[in-house]
EAL domain-containing protein (Spartinivicinus marinus), 647 residues
Amino acid sequence: MTVLRLLLVFLTLIIVVLFSASFLLNVYDARAYLQEQLESHAQDTATSLGVSIAAVQSDDIAIIDSMIDAVFDRGYYQQIIFTDNDGKVLVNSEQPVRLEDIPGWFVNWINLDAPTATTEVNQGWVVLGQLSVTSHPGIAYRDLWRKTKSNLVLFGLVAAASWLALTLLLKLILKPLSLLEKQAKAICEKQFEVQPQLPKTRDLRRVVEAMNRMAKRLQHLFNEQVEIIERLRDQSHRDHITGLPNRQAFDNRVNAWMESEHGESGGGLVLLQIRHLEQLNLKQGREAGDALVKQIAEQLTEVFHRFPGHVVSRRSGGDFAVFIPRMSMELLQNTTEVLYRQLIGLQLLESIHASDSLHVAAVLRLNRCDLMQLLTDADISLRQLQSRGVNGWSCSKVEPEQASCMDWPANKWHQQLKSILTNKSLILYNQQIYDNKRQLLQREILVRIQLENDIISAGVFLPMAERFGLAEEFDKLIVELVIQHLLQQPADCPYCVNLSPRSLQSESFSNWLLDKFDQHRSLLSQLVFEVPEYCVQLALPIMQQLATRLSKLGGAFSIDHFGVGANAFAYLQSLSVHYLKVDSSYLKQLLDSKDNQFFIQSLVQIAHSRDITILVEGVEAEDVWQLLLSLGIDGGQGYLLHRPESL
């Protein structure tokens, strides 16, 4: 029972007890008063009527009868009887007691006595007889009943008004308690809210002030912890001048991409080298060299930010590398040219006064490849450029050994994708996700299509679908097929469905998704919707709204490839997320990388404090899995645990 309800019950009981006592006292006082009035009334009437009868001739019974009737007819008497000295009744006027408008229980409770007053009628020294007058209690009952009803109505109105006033007053006084409860729950979820309005009551004000101080202190400690984790991660994974991923982070992320199913689509690699950087350092100081490196990093970030999943890295000195997954030759060539033209105009670069200070080489592979081979191809192109002795750029394509659908012209791709949507010919696979006890936790839905004689993964065809504006239609089809499957065959665990960035940035798709599961609420609890981390960073407000609405309907929300972005912990305080999947790049060299181990362990501690489940992807070795378990992860997926299979 809440404090408010407890106080209301207690105060209501007090009001009822006080009124009941007051009411009973008033009733019994009124009863005693009316009883005395009835006795006095009977005695007065008997005395006055006896005097009147004494003035009449004793044998004139008719006049005496008339006098008694005149008094009796006034209705205040139950009986008036006049007897002679021998007890013979000479006159008797009597009426029954009828209480038609008064409840019987009230009459039985009050139980007024009908008093009888007796007096002798004398003429001089001669006793003529005896007169008895009995008052009628009906009027007393009616008066008392009317007063009782009035008191009850008055009490009801006063009690209702008092109860309402007490409720409002107590709610106002105890409102800080509900805010304190909300504040405490928020603190448990690492949301350190502060109550701006302090209560007026001194005791509650002190409690709220103490909670505010605690929230601020905890927020400070939490932010310090997050900053330390981010700083240590940056020291091991980022270049300290530009803030870009370093060589190790770049290699781990690209290798993880290539080894995943997305790697089937290949990608482009851009190598950029600034020569004679040491001359700039000698002439203008190291600050000028650092400024040039920062400007180049900013230009690279600006040019490639629109490509999902890209990785920009400073490898060493004036060497930079950019990996762009799922690229076309035309787009890579245009982007490389734009990058070169923006960089060649940098003032600090011109101050080197060398005609061979900038070289940009890009290579493209349209199928799965090895990073070292891709780096080798790009390095060869870069050396060929430098051998010319002038600034320049180049873009080349490494032809696959076998023909690939990535070589198809745009119109053929568009036609094939539209046909798949029309025929709803998607092929659903699943990969099982296990918890830390190797019990089935989820099944991640993987999508395939058949093009000619080949089965093509989502990592190949979905980028093309986004290019033609069909990603939203594919996501809708995937969701509908999963719903259809669940209706036919109930799931033994939740299904994890990936949503594309283009769909998540569409308000119409969000509304469609919520309307769809408003019709199938029982199925929503069997689904987990997953989005990549970079998508959350691009559209955080939309993600917050969608995640909150899905949670209210009973659904779950997950973030994939977590940890590759800058300030990875920043949005966890504002996003209602149920699962985090650590990017597989952190599993590369995990056994030897104390930094990666520290990051995963710290992430587990922070996530568990917010009731977020930590999963890892790309588990392929038993010793890595055992190390992850010792770091506290909740589960994972990968070829070690389960290979994809048809749904």
Summary: The two ends are 49 Å apart (CA to CA).
